[in-house]
Amino acid sequence: MEPVRWGVLSVSKHYSLRVHPQIKGSPLITLVGIASRDLRKARDAAEALGLAKAYGSYEELLQDPTIEAVYIPLPNHLHVEWICKAADQGKHVLCEKPLSLDTEGAEKAFQYAQKRQVRLMEAFMYRFHPQWNHAREVVRSGELGDIRFIHIAYSYMNKDPHNIRNKLEAGGGAILDIGCYAISACRFLMGKEPKRVLALVQRDPEFKTDYLSSGILDFGSSRGVFTISTQAFPGQRVEVVGTNGKLLLGLPFNMYGDVQAQVEITTSIGQRTVLLGPAEQYRIMFEAFSRSIREGTPVPTPPEDAVANMRVIDALFRSEKKGGWEPVDLHDAP
């Protein structure tokens, strides 16, 4: 298969530290160049990352006819704008999560990409790690019995007032930054959408972003429950509990690419630890997206999933304001 030619829209620390080291050697990916609004920054990044081209604006990169697909790690509030501008130039788009700040924006991006006949996918890389595929297989096999609840905890410490994750207008805060993972993971494992949600949110008095948030997702006979924080000791954990057993993912989201993941499964028969990997989840995701371009097949995670995830987030924010349960609006989902 001829490799897909990629461009990176923004000089992002996330990209340079986590994404680039995993995808740079892939035979399915050719990294053409990187763009910044500051040409000097773009040139410095291109040199450091070993990329051939640097662009002094995002528009310049999108106008390069040699680039087929773009990765967008821009701040949350810029996602929809640049998805649409990339689509206008015929570029396929892999965009960091969340796809938008609300359902309306996610729907706009989805419909715009569809109209321009380009592929669009939200970059939930965790779904491509074999530990998650195995966890879902165990849940669906019935080994754990009927699932009663999923508990998710996810936190990190960041009180920097200049950090984009602490800027409300840029889509900062715990729910949009890491709560989207918890919601996505519950939906992924349950294989369905929650009917209603309840949120308890604490906001920083200076930033106005939520720094401590909990949510309950009602799936009918089962629950998804999460607590997330941007101002707590770092950690992450996913536990699935059923009538006949339980499953634990100790490092569910930011899994290292060079070590094996551990999936702990406990039933009445006993306990076992399944070792999976090592696996570079970013590389697997980029390669899967590249294959969909070359083979003309749907992207692995359809953009409709991003819209559905956003509907749950919107309901949680409504619950915060109203102080009670809020239905998840699914009647007009794409």
Itemize the secondary structure elements and their pairings.
Blueprint: E1 4-9, H1 13-23, E2 29-35, H2 39-49, E3 53-55, H3 58-62, E4 69-72, H4 79-88, E5 92-95, H5 103-115, E6 120-122, H6 130-141, E7 147-157, H7 174-190, E8 196-203, E9 210-218, E10 223-229, E11 231-242, E12 245-249, E13 261-267, E14 270-276, H8 281-295, H9 303-322, E15 326-327
Parallel strand pairs: 1-2, 1-4, 2-3, 4-5, 5-6, 7-10
Antiparallel strand pairs: 7-11, 8-9, 8-15, 9-10, 11-12, 12-13, 13-14
Helix pairs in contact: 1-8, 4-5, 5-9, 7-9
Task: Write a structural description.
By secondary structure, this protein is an alpha/beta fold. It folds into two domains: 4-125 and 283-303, Rossmann fold (3-Layer(aba) Sandwich), CATH 3.40.50.720; 129-281 and 310-327, 2-Layer Sandwich (Dihydrodipicolinate Reductase, domain 2), CATH 3.30.360. It is built from nine helices and 15 strands. α4 packs parallel to α5 and α5 runs antiparallel to α9. The longest helix has 20 residues, at 303-322.
Quaternary organisation of the protein chains = single chain
CATH topology of the largest domain: Dihydrodipicolinate Reductase, domain 2
Rg measurement, Å: 20 Å
Shape: globular
Query: Order of strands side by side in the largest beta sheet?
Result: 14-13-12-11-7-10-9-8-15
| CATH homologous superfamily title of the largest domain | Dihydrodipicolinate Reductase, domain 2
CATH architecture of the largest domain: 2-Layer Sandwich
Helix tally equals 9
Number of strands: 15
Q: Per DSSP, what share of the residues sits in E-state strands of 2 or more residues?
A: 25-35%
Taking pLDDT < 50 over at least 5 consecutive residues as the criterion, the unreliable ranges are none
Which percent bin holds the helix content? 25-40%
Structural class label: alpha/beta
